[in-house]
Design brief:
The chain is of the alpha/beta class. Helices cover 37% and strands 18% of the residues. Helix 2 links the parallel strand 2 and strand 3. The protein binds adenosine monophosphate, zinc ion and fe (iii) ion (2 copies).
Length: 288
């Protein structure tokens, strides 16, 4: 069975609506997928209703987190699976992050406009269509304005990538607080692309033991932003700490070149997710 546990839809910064995403996953021959939009569960219902026969959906989200070290603070992403989407503390925390993302994107647009870059906040909001707003939405506006050729170019330091003068931080969740919130909501957690040095600074190795002690369940090893050496490093860390590993596409539609199902997870890891979760259950499309 082919399992891909990290997909984005138009409920955040993917370009495929959640229902279409499920049909795409079914057509690609996948057996199980997780919908993990940034800081939202807004795509869960549409995805569930559109499940093709035999495809299992693991409902999830990717939480924008931050680790506050003594001398540095580093952003990281936590995948959360099968948590209770009505848990009031988690719902409130996700709403705060989404709100902060809105203010942050609007400020980035203001900074760009002040420099004569022709992007428009109302237009960007309209294109996001209620989905969690992220920098890929700003990248899409730069593409529409004919200023960059693709998302990759938009993520250079000249535009909205790391090192850009227009880049504004958002208010992420403290990672230990996020682990507590997801556990309290009955969910299972996986540290997404934890060694992706291409994205910027990564957390110190000592942090993994602290996260595991705080309840982290798994690590994403196979991801397009990990080199072969980084994938091997993640597997070593997971083995030392008794965490399971996953592999996933982190599909974002046309924002990235990666295909759905390009990286996959072993059935044993999915079993640990399902066995460990009490907040929601997997759903499978019925035949006929
Ligand atoms: P944000 O969460 O708003 O800071 O935006 C980060 C999102 O942009 C992540 O979901 C990434 O998948 C995406 N992203 C980051 N770097 C790139 C890149 N070089 N090309 C395409 N997408 C990227
Ligand atoms: Zn994204
Ligand atoms: Fe991520
Ligand atoms: Fe992601």
């Amino acid at each position: 069975m082919t399992i891909d546990l990290h997909l984005h839809s138009t409920a955040s910064d993917g370009t495929t609506p959640p229902d279409e995403l499920m049909r795409l996953a079914g057509a690609a021959g996948l057996g199980a997928v997780a919908l993990t939009d940034h800081d939202t569960t807004a795509g869960w219902a549409a995805a569930t209703q559109a499940l093709p026969p035999g495809l299992t959906l693991i409902r999830g989200a990717e939480l924008s987190c931050r680790w506050h070290g003594e001398s540095e603070s580093i952003a990281l992403h936590l995948l959360a699976y099968l948590f209770d989407p009505a848990d009031e503390h988690l719902v409130a925390a996700l709403a705060r992050v989404r709100e902060s993302r809105l203010g942050r994107a609007e400020r980035m647009v203001a900074l760009m406009r002040a420099d004569g870059i022709d992007v428009n906040w109302a237009d960007i909001l309209a294109h996001a269509d209620g989905g969690t707003v992220g920098r890929p939405h700003l990248a899409a506006a730069l593409i529409r304005a004919g200023l960059v050729a693709d998302t990759q170019e938009a993520f250079s330091p000249r535009w909205i990538g790391n090192g850009s003068p227009y880049r504004v931080p958002k208010d992420d969740l403290d990672v230990f607080e996020a682990l507590r919130l997801v556990q309290a909501a009955g969910g299972v957690t996986v540290f997404a692309h934890p060694r992706a040095r291409v994205r910027g600074r990564v957390v110190p190795k000592e942090l993994f033991a602290q996260l595991a002690a705080a309840g982290l369940d798994g690590l994403e090893a196979d991801h397009h932003d990990h080199s072969p050496a980084e994938r091997a490093e993640v597997r070593r860390i997971a083995a030392q700490l008794g965490l399971f590993v996953t592999g996933s596409s982190d599909f974002h539609g046309t924002h990235k070149k990666v295909r759905i199902g390009e990286f996959t997870t072993a059935p044993e890891a999915l079993e640990r997710i399902v066995a460990g979760a009490t907040g929601a259950t997997p759903v499978t499309g019925v035949v006929g």
